[in-house]
Amino acid sequence: MSTGTAVVSATERDEFNPFLAMAEHFETAADHLELDPGVREVLRTPDRELTVSLPVLMDDGSLKVFKGYRVQHNFLRGPCKGGIRFAPDVHVDEVRALAAWMTWKCSVVALPFGGAKGGVICDPRELSQGELERITRRYTASIMDILGPDRDVPAPDMNTNEQTMAWIMDTYSMHVRRTTTAIVTGKPLTLGGSRGRTEATGRGVMIACREAMKKLGMRPEATRVVVQGSGNVGGIGAMLLHREGYNVVSMSDMYGAIHDENGLDVPDVLRWLREHKALEGYPEATHLDNDEQLGLECDLLVPAATENQITSQNVDRVRAKLVVEGANGPTTVPADAILENRGVTVVPDILANAGGVTVSYFEWVQDRMGYFWTEEIVNSRLEQTMVSSFNEVDACAKRHQVSMRTAAYILAIGRVADVYRMRGVFA
Questions:
Q1: Tens digits of per-residue pLDDT, 40-77?
Q2: Which long-range contacts (CB under 8 A, 24 or more apart) does 166-172 make?
Q3: Residues with catalytic annotation?
């Protein structure tokens, strides 16, 4: 008898488990590197995981307990670095995967950081500003023992922003009895933030698109772009691509997508979003469901929303020649293999969206120096880092005759493994 509840097989669950996806890419690269089994176990195992319960006084006077996580994946190359997300579907395997991806991402672009990630299970849409502040401060106080400019430096992620980082910085500073701006990145400029930080991830995605298109002989003015997402990565990435002459034909948010075959007026779309908080009702385009957007005819697809968007169930509808991953883990392992077999070039997340952590590193450096750079210097150094890293991954892919994703993992894991061998085992 049918209960009306969808049944998800174990295989399907595995496909959507981001930690298992990270582990599979890790093993593929480790095989190419011929890593020792013991070294593999060290590098794929998180160094530290912390789960905390957060009692918070709500606006109505009730007391509610939230759950938070902080996973520090690896300290070998330096302090851990990684965002904090607030979302109702946060789970520990997701946080583990994101922390590991941060390790490989920092290594790909040669930053002196390891990877971490944090999350709190909550729905920010249902919380007041005061409740969000109390959750943030309690979470910070609960994980303070493992934070610090030389230990672990958080940053914004999904549903967190510069205000969240200001609360974390203030809470940490009050506990240690000194203002410590380098404890977080992605802060407001007035609290030691870096110019260019807000646009950094989207700018890095734009640079990755440009460099990949050079390799493929594609021209911006002849390129139709579908951008999945319209937030800090998708929205800014779309704007920068639009300015570079690309024909952005579709954008989306969590409620739906818009499409115009002749090209969207991206500045007007973003103005609408600022005023209405959603793409719904935008009058100058056709409205689509989110699942329809991935099937649009285009040359370049930029998934810049969240994990597990291109899957074995919808990859056959993807018609792009080039996929540049703005989000973390947007393509599942089976879907990635299908795209590779079809000859679709995929610029992987740990390279394509590394602009954010690169400028976070610049912010951390500026805070520690007490000397701040102009936006032109920040953008110039970001450009140099992204172009150099793209070329290193491309050369590695050609050398090993593998995809850019596998090449990025080979490069990243190889660098961390070299540091591990050099430092040795503390016993």
A1: 999 999 999 999 999 999 999 999 999 999 999 999 99
A2: 166/191, 167/133, 167/136, 167/137, 167/140, 168/84, 168/136, 168/140, 171/136, 171/137, 171/140, 171/141, 171/144, 172/140, 172/144, 172/147
A3: 117
Give the span between the Cα atoms of 323 and 338, in whole angstroms. Answer: 13
Q: Each residue of 163-216: pLDDT tens digit? A: 999 999 999 999 999 999 999 999 999 999 999 999 999 999 999 999 999 999
pTM: 0.93
Token output for 407 = 């090449």
What phi-psi label fits residue 403: left (phi over 0), alpha (psi between -120 and 50 degrees) or beta?
Answer: beta
- Pair 299, 212: CB distance under 8 Å: no
Task: For residue range 224-266, list pLDDT tens digits in order.
Answer: 999 999 998 999 999 999 999 999 999 999 999 999 999 999 9
Pull the structure tokens for residue 393: 């991954």
Percent helix, strand and coil across the chain, each to the nearest 5: 50, 15, 35
Residue type, 23: A
Q: Which amino acid is at 423?
A: R
Identify any residues that bridge with 388 across adjacent strands, giving them in sequence order.
none
Which residue spans within 28-162 are E strands per DSSP?
Answer: 48-57, 63-72, 80-87, 114-121, 152-156
Domains and CATH numbers, the chain: 46-177 (3.40.50.10860), 200-352 (3.40.50.720)
- For the record, the structure tokens of 294 come out as 């991935």
